[in-house]
């Protein structure tokens, strides 16, 4: 069938067909993902990007209406290098075909050429042998064919051959692809996208992915690429921004010092920023001064790389960011993190990823409104669990107390969906009935049990058995933060501060926060905690303990030294509390978390 024009309806169905082909090949794209970092997520990221666009795409007779909805949704949903490059390309088309109800091949080919240029401009250091090269070569082929035909069907089918040839040549243009004997995964995804469009043009319908095809996709085995790679910048970090107060070129100058692989897609009104960095918290502190932060993410590429090439177990351990643990321990045991959200003056930050305790306390002093927290959304949790399900046979999730946060409930709901999609996956959600350092100790126990060769089921049963032995005692400097965080009424806080009370906060056996004891000085407070630990030691003995603090390293070290002398054993760790915990505990708080020994 000859097609002489492209309108909104045709674009709508072409996009759906192209997206289907990319999503169908998600596994393969993950497996061949070695550039710019071999973190194995190109297929996942592009699938998520395209799914957002599919959800928000408007089907309309007018090309302008459909393309505008596509461009806006692409910026909103773009994830990863290739996802943001896709978004930039789509927005380039949107800009070049603005106010067009339909377009012919000649005009479309020129728009594609300009969109490719626009895409290159969004990348700080464009690299050939990637999706960019294939886009450029395909655009050149379209430009040639527009002089030979006015039929979209013929031009798209024949230009696909050029795109495929360009794809095969990527492995000769980048040494890392040549060494792994694979083509660039982003470029492969773009070719799949074009193949889906051509298939729709030829068949006139969008083929659904059958259950058999899905099963075969899931059975694709991991290729052993055996890559040894230095990851210089750990976090693949992204921000979705609005109302940028400077130009995108100036923004590039302002943040380029933070890392590499910088891509800026969109314009000052709405844009997506992507950068590989070791300091996500610095990036977002800078961005907060320049734009409205609508959404953000920071993926741990080092952990993704380890999971793909050096995985230590077939059981994944996932915990939320309220669990306080040393980063060294987290890295050694490949523990996965589910960040909670911190809202400060209208901007949402990811606990421990895009904001740390140091930045939090600095921002706290300048905030117009007191910060608040929110559990991760069910969709965010589903995405995390789906990633883990792709790489592990079983998952153990350890959450903050259900009585303190909705995180446990949201995880449980997300697990239902993941189980329905993967019946063979073993997954358990364990309510720690604690938080902070105590939750961290439970995660430590899980990781060490796994290292000692215990099975998934043995670990789950063990954790459910020992969590009753967890205790935490928090010495709060004053009630100010608990009042502002909503944990204590203003009246009670005012009376307590007037009396100079220094409370000790604990958690009961059901996971509720309780006022455990109080003193009239920090010194008196410390003596009470010291006496409590002595009672625990005499009762059954303490297996392990940890010290956590809110920006008071000196007092935390004093706690650690004193308790070591008292108990005859060293603390497992001394760490700063997470920003989420700091909202209520506040600056100057210090806590000891304890795991008692089993009876008998």
> What is the typical, i.e. mean, pLDDT?
88
Supply Rg: 27 Å
Please state the structural category: alpha+beta
Low-pLDDT runs: 209-228, 491-496
CA-to-CA gap between the ends? 81 Å
Q: Give the percentage of residues in beta strands.
A: 15-25%
The portion of residues assigned to helices is 40-55%
> Judging from the principal axes of the Cα atoms, what is the shape?
elongated
DSSP, total strands: 19
Total of helices: 25
Main beta sheet: 6 strands, mixed
Widest sheet: strand order?
Answer: 16-15-14-19-17-18
Organism: Halanaerobium polyolivorans
Keywords: Lipid-binding
Pfam family, one: DegV
GO molecular function, one term: lipid binding
What can you tell me about this protein's structure?
It is built from 25 helices and 19 strands. The strands form five sheets. A six-stranded mixed β-sheet has the order 16-15-14-19-17-18, sandwiched between helices. A four-stranded antiparallel β-sheet has the order 4-5-3-6, with helices on both faces. A hairpin with a 5-residue loop joins strand 15 and strand 16 (513-519). Helix 1 runs antiparallel to helix 3 (42-56) and helix 5 (80-96) packs across helix 6. The radius of gyration is 27 Å and the shape is elongated.
Secondary-structure blueprint:
Elements: E1 6-7, H1 8-24, H2 26-31, H3 42-56, H4 63-77, H5 80-96, E2 102-103, H6 105-121, H7 131-145, H8 152-173, H9 175-180, H10 185-203, H11 211-218, E3 235-242, H12 248-255, E4 259-266, E5 270-277, H13 280-288, E6 292-300, H14 301-309, E7 315-320, H15 327-332, E8 336-338, E9 341-344, E10 347-350, H16 357-366, E11 372-374, H17 378-391, E12 394-399, H18 407-421, E13 426-431, H19 436-451, H20 456-466, E14 470-475, H21 480-484, H22 490-498, E15 502-507, E16 513-519, H23 522-539, E17 542-549, H24 553-567, E18 574-576, H25 579-585, E19 590-596
Helix pairs in contact: 1-3, 1-4, 1-10, 3-4, 3-5, 4-5, 5-6, 6-7, 7-8, 7-10, 8-10, 17-18, 19-20, 23-24
């Amino acid at each position: 069938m000859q097609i002489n024009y492209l309108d909104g309806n045709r674009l709508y169905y072409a996009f759906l067909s192209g997206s289907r082909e990319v999503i169908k090949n998600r596994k393969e794209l993950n497996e061949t993902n070695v550039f710019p970092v071999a973190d194995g997520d190109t297929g996942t990221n592009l699938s998520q990007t395209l799914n957002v666009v599919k959800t928000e795409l408007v089907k309309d007779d007018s090309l302008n209406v459909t393309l505008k909805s596509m461009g806006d949704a692409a910026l909103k949903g773009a994830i990863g290098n290739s996802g943001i490059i896709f978004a930039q390309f789509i927005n380039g088309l949107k800009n070049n075909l603005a106010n067009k109800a339909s377009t012919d091949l000649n005009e479309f080919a020129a728009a594609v050429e300009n969109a490719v240029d626009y895409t290159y401009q969004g990348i700080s250091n464009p690299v050939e042998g990637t999706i960019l090269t294939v886009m450029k070569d395909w655009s050149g082929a379209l430009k040639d064919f527009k002089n030979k035909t006015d039929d979209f069907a013929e031009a798209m089918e024949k230009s696909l051959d050029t795109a495929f040839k360009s794809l095969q040549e990527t492995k000769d243009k980048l040494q890392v692809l040549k060494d792994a004997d694979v083509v660039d995964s982003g470029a492969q995804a773009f070719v799949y996208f074009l193949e889906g469009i051509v298939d729709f043009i030829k068949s006139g319908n969008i083929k659904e992915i059958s259950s058999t095809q899905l099963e075969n996709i899931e059975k694709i085995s991991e290729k052993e690429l055996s890559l040894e790679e230095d990851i210089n910048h750990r976090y693949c970090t992204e921000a979705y921004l609005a109302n940028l107060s400077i130009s995108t070129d100036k923004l590039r100058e302002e943040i380029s010092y933070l890392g590499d692989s910088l891509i800026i897609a969109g314009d000052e009104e709405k844009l997506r920023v992507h950068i590989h960095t070791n300091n996500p918290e610095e990036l977002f502190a800078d961005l907060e001064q320049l734009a409205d932060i609508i959404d953000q993410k920071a993926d741990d590429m080092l952990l993704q790389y380890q999971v793909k090439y050096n995985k230590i177990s077939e059981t994944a351990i996932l915990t939320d960011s309220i669990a306080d643990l040393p980063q060294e321990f987290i890295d050694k045991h490949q523990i996965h993190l589910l960040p909670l959200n911190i809202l400060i003056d209208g901007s949402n930050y990811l606990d421990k990823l895009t904001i740390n305790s140091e930045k939090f306390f600095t921002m706290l002093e300048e905030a117009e409104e007191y910060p608040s927290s929110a559990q991760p959304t069910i969709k965010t949790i589903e995405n995390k669990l789906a990633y883990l399900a792709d790489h592990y046979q079983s998952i153990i999730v350890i959450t903050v107390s259900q009585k303190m946060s909705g995180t446990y409930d949201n995880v449980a709901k997300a697990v239902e969906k993941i189980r329905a999609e993967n019946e063979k996956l073993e997954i358990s959600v364990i309510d720690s009935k604690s938080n902070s350092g105590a939750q961290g100790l439970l995660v430590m126990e899980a990781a060490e049990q796994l290292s000692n060769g215990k099975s998934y089921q043995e670990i789950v049963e063990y954790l459910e058995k020992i969590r009753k032995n967890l205790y935490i005692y928090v010495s709060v400097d004053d009630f100010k933060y608990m009042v502002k965080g909503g944990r204590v009424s203003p009246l009670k806080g005012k009376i307590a501060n007037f009396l100079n009370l220094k409370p000790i906060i604990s958690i009961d056996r059901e996971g509720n926060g309780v006022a455990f004891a109080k003193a009239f000085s920090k010194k008196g407070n410390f003596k009470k905690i010291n006496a409590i630990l002595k009672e625990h030691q005499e009762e059954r003995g303490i297996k392990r303990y940890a010290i956590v603090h809110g920006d008071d390293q000196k007092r935390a070290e004093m706690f650690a030294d004193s308790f070591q002398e008292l108990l005859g054993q060293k603390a497992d760790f001394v760490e700063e509390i997470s920003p989420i915990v700091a909202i209520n505990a506040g600056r100057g708080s210090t806590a000891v978390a304890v795991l008692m020994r089993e009876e008998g």
